[in-house]
């Protein structure tokens, strides 16, 4: 069945390629090579929408590899709804394996996708997502081009078990490296537990950056309801792929473009959702980046809206469980409905279904209150990111939902000074320096120390690295001090439970305050007041700036690293390519022949 007979004719941009009466020579050239895999001129000249499937799966992108299979069901859906599917590859992104960091690839995949969507005869697109940065890269590109776009998540891996205990992606590494340092497990057990966390096709099964960003896409209204949390191998995943393919064809006919969906209200909804799910700190730069490409400004104060929101989802690293149970409990729609009823979301925003967010989730209830708790009986109060500033940086964030009770009792509970911690800075220049020196007894690291790492931001690394979640020296861990406060101009893994101040902007390499900080300085963190300062006199700061300058950073090793450094913003601004922001809606004019 094709649905297009009943529809009013809409002239799609692909017809400028395949039906230009003035340029028959060009039209013939555009058409002929598609014949070589069996398409017919009639299909391409039928006036039906050509729907791109932006394929992020490959052997180099194992987290998204399920999309190589799912694409078949997407194609079925597109065909059944009267569209013509065209699948094409996206630059691979594999969070854990890409050196020096996959953060470089978000903007590179973005650039590549913009060129494809702009320069080829594509009328609408299915953005296949999964691993951390594949979601923001696709969404950013969809905004720049502004053709109808829908997100299809690949879904998390099945829950992992090791010796009867749940082991979640990433989190298993951070937990067990502490146990390894304490001499409680062998290297073999460390490996076995880590490998047991990867059970099947799919992305990280914790509420790391991947699960967070796919939930964000759903909260923004960019995917069909329920899409984000379905585990990759479940039968519902293939069915979701089919439904997504069908729906995107209708979106093409309705001209339902990202610019109608990605409003400021939608992004504020996403900020609230990130807090309730205990989402990754990487959501901060990615949400800001997606918003800026959509022409929406997210101010530091907007995160305060999330800070007040309680933790509802009991998923590692902030909670106990993994992706399968989250899906069975109702997934993202159940969380959104909980937030909506508490008055925390704007339910009137439009979504890819053509309906409002409130309409999409009205029937969605948590079926497992231990997994998704009610708003008024949450797992924890105030689960969002706390934005900090002070003389060390203008902008930094802390994820309060992962700060353990033990850590709060030890550091943040001095009577009369709750939430305030003063400690002695121990400063590392990048992660090689950290690994080389962390166990050096001369550093005198004790439970009153704050570990600081610099040279790890977008310019410094380059790309900004997930290295701020530094663990204490082995000797301290053996004494039972398993976490210390950390500060850095880089990021940390979304699967980490480290109590950290992250994304310090301006970064050290750009002359930010971490550049003049020295080991031995006292730092005061006041979580309530949102302050983080080094207690160093102003004249001394000026003297250090004058005499010492900025710590050196490694040179660029590839052409892209150089181009990236020349245009990248700080993490407060999403780490976007500043020069790309002025391009928005570029598909409104088709490129010249
Ligand atoms: Fe790819 Fe976590 S490493 S999703
Ligand atoms: Mg990560």
From TrEMBL:
Region described as Disordered: spans on this chain: 487-507
Keywords assigned: 2Fe-2S, Amino-acid biosynthesis, Branched-chain amino acid biosynthesis, Iron, Iron-sulfur, Lyase, Metal-binding
Domain annotation Dihydroxy-acid/6-phosphogluconate dehydratase C-terminal: ranges: 371-574
GO MF, any single term: 2 iron, 2 sulfur cluster binding
Source organism, top-level taxon: Bacteria
Keyword Lyase: yes
Enzyme class: lyase
Gene3D superfamilies in UniProt: IlvD/EDD C-terminal domain-like
Gene Ontology annotations of biological process type: branched-chain amino acid biosynthetic process
EC number: 4.2.1.9
Boundaries of every Dihydroxy-acid/6-phosphogluconate dehydratase N-terminal domain copy: 48-360
PANTHER family named among the record's database cross-references: HYPOTHETICAL DIHYDROXY-ACID DEHYDRATASE (EUROFUNG)-RELATED, HYPOTHETICAL DIHYDROXYACID DEHYDRATASE (EUROFUNG)-RELATED
Family of this protein: Belongs to the IlvD/Edd family.
Protein name: Dihydroxy-acid dehydratase
Organism expressing this protein natively: Rubrobacter marinus
């Amino acid at each position: 069945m094709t649905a297009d007979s009943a529809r009013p004719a809409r002239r799609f941009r692909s017809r400028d390629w395949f039906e230009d009466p003035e340029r028959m020579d060009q039209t013939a050239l555009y058409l002929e090579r598609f014949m070589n895999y069996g398409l017919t001129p009639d299909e391409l000249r039928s006036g039906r929408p050509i729907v791109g499937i932006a394929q992020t799966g490959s052997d180099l992108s194992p987290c998204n590899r399920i999309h190589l299979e799912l694409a078949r069901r997407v194609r079925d859906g597109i065909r059944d709804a009267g569209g013509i599917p065209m699948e094409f590859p996206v630059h691979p992104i594999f969070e854990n394996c890409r050196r020096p960091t996959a953060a470089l690839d978000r903007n590179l995949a973005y650039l590549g996708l913009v060129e494809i969507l702009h320069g080829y005869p594509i009328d609408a697109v299915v953005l296949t997502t999964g691993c951390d940065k594949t979601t923001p890269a696709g969404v950013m590109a969809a905004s720049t081009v502004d053709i109808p776009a829908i997100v299809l998540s690949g879904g998390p891996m099945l829950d992992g078990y090791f010796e009867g205990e749940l082991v979640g992606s990433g989190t298993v590494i951070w937990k067990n490296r502490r146990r390894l340092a304490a001499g409680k497990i062998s290297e073999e057990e460390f490996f076995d537990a880590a490998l047991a966390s990867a059970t099947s096709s799919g992305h990280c099964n914790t509420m790391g950056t991947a699960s967070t960003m796919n939930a964000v896409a759903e909260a923004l209204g960019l995917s069909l309801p329920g899409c984000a949390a379905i585990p990759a191998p479940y039968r519902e995943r293939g069915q979701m792929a089919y439904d997504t393919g069908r729906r995107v064809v209708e979106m093409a006919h309705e001209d339902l473009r990202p610019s109608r969906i990605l409003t400021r209200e939608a992004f504020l909804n996403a900020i609230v959702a990130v807090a309730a799910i205990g989402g990754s700190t990487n959501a901060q730069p990615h949400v800001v980046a997606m918003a800026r490409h959509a022409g929406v400004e997210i101010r530091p104060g907007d995160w305060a809206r999330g800070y007040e929101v309680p933790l509802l989802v009991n998923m590692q690293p902030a909670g106990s469980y993994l992706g399968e149970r989250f899906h069975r409990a109702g997934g993202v729609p159940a969380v959104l409905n909980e937030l909506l009823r508490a008055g925390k979301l704007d339910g009137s925003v439009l979504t890819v279904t053509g309906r409002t967010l409130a309409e999409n989730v009205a029937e969605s209830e948590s079926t497992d209150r231990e997994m998704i708790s009610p708003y008024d009986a949450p797992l924890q109060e105030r689960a969002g990111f706390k934005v900090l500033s002070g003389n060390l940086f203008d902008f930094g964030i802390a994820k309060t939902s992962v700060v353990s009770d033990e850590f709060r009792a030890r550091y943040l509970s001095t009577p009369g000074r709750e939430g305030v911690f003063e400690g002695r800075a121990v400063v590392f220049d990048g992660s090689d320096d950290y690994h080389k020196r962390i166990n050096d007894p001369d550093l005198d690291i004790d439970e009153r120390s704050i570990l600081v790492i610099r040279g790890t931001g977008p310019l410094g690394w380059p790309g900004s690295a997930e290295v701020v979640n530094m663990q204490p020296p082995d000797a301290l861990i053996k004494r039972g001090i398993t976490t210390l406060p950390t500060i850095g101009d880089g990021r940390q893994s979304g699967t980490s439970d480290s109590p950290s101040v992250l994304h310090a902007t301006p970064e050290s390499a750009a002359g930010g305050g971490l550049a003049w900080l020295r080991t031995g300085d006292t730092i005061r963190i006041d979580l309530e007041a949102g302050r983080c300062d080094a207690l160093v006199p102003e004249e001394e700061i000026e003297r250090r700036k004058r005499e010492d300058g900025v710590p050196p950073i490694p040179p660029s090793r590839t052409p892209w690293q150089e181009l990236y450094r020349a245009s990248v913003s700080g993490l407060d601004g999403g780490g976007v390519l500043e020069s790309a922001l002025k391009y928005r809606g570029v598909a409104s004019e088709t490129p010249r022949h």
